[in-house]
Amino acid sequence: MRNITMTLPSALPSMVWGWRELLGLCKIKVVVVMLVCAAVGMALATQGLPPLTKVIIGLAGIGLASCGAAAFNHVIDRHLDAVMTRTSRRPVASKRLPVTIALAWACLLSVAGVTLLAWQVNVLAAALTFASLIGYALIYTAFLKRATPQNIVIGGVAGAAPPLLGWVAITGQVSPEPLLLMLIIFAWTPPHFWALAIHKCDDYARAGIPMLPVTHGLPFTRLQIWLYGWLTVLTTLLPVMIGMSGVLYLVIVLGLNARFMFWNWRVWRGHDATAPIGAFWFSIRYLLGVFGALLLDHYAAALAW
Ligand code: HEM
Ligand SMILES: CC(C)=CCC/C(C)=C/CC/C(C)=C/COP(=O)(O)OP(=O)(O)O
């Protein structure tokens, strides 16, 4: 007993430190935004409020699996991450955390997430979440990222899945509406990522990763951001066109789209070296804004009834 009271306080800092390293593998901020998109998918799947237990367990399952996918990415990319300034301080890349522990953590999170969904939500939601996990952790990270500048376009399918996963968690089936929400994130991914890739182009070149600005140059990448930006704007209008969202959503997204395209235009013009990183950070607020507007419009319409 005396031993425990003496050793526990001294062991506490290293236990907290260990948890911080494990949480550092989870890309928590990215996963939180993904969960917001999944929650909007859940809300839009029903007229009223979706069942709270399904929402909580569904988000827990999708969140755990996404964190697991992110942890696999840290393990598989550790050598590339070590070369890039943005990522060199990551737990596995900097060798603060052993690969075996990170791998065990990635497996634990992934199995827990997918099992929870299969057991408490439904098998289709679990299967689609598992497919997204494989899509990001294996297909994107291990193959596409090293193979082609279209890596993030193809890999973007996995990142875009959360609204579909949320919808399926509630309804148990795939429908056109969540596929359309997925399309918004799919079109948004290139402007989101290539803006950062321009800002960190030297990093990617040093690591030998064939990101678009490295393989095709900055002017071509800036043009692609501008074009995919317009594609994103078009996809955000689709919910109104099919009658899923109304005027409130339209007004909000028109404002968001104007600002989004202003940033993309600044990137496309190429006169301002700070435009790409500004556009990257705005892209995140933009996506949250679009999904927030979908939610607001959905419940405003329900209240009006
Ligand atoms: C294949 C698709 C995607 C690629 C290649 C990509 C790439 C990136 C990269 C490289 C970063 C910087 C991360 C860092 O410095 O730690 C980042 C940040 C971020 N991404 Fe993405 N992303 C993708 C999809 C998504 C999706 C689908 C979402 C949300 C729905 C998202 C939300 C975010 C957020 C919130 C951040 C900021 C994280 C922070 O503040 O640390 N991304 N993304
Ligand atoms: C189940 C499910 C929905 C899975 C998706 C999981 C997930 C966390 C996707 C994140 C997308 C992302 C941040 C990609 C960047 O990877 P990168 O390797 O290009 O970026 P990095 O250099 O910052 O690691």
Could you walk me through the main structural features you see in this protein, from its secondary elements to its overall organization?
Helix 7 crosses helix 9 (176-199) and helix 9 runs antiparallel to helix 14. The protein has 14 helices and no strands. The model is unreliable at 1-6 (pLDDT under 50). It is mostly helical and 305 residues long. The protein has two domains: 19-173, Tetracycline Repressor, domain 2; 175-304. Residues 27, 30-31, 34, 65-66, 69-70, 73, 77, 87, 129, 132-133, 136, 141, 145, 158-159, 161-162 line the site of farnesyl diphosphate.
CATH fold description of the largest domain? Tetracycline Repressor, domain 2
Give the overall silhouette: globular
Strand percentage? under 5%
How many structural units, i.e. domains?
2
Runs with pLDDT <50, length 5+? Answer: 1-6
Q: What are the distinct ligands in this entry? A: protoporphyrin IX containing FE, farnesyl diphosphate
Query: How helix-rich are the residues, as a percent range?
Result: over 70%
Number of strands: 0
Backbone CA Rg: 21 Å
Mean pLDDT value: 95
- Quick one: CATH superfamily of the largest domain? UbiA prenyltransferase
Main β sheet profile: none
Organism: Vreelandella maris
GO molecular function, one term: protoheme IX farnesyltransferase activity
GO cellular component, one term: plasma membrane
Keywords: Cell membrane, Heme biosynthesis, Membrane, Transferase, Transmembrane, Transmembrane helix
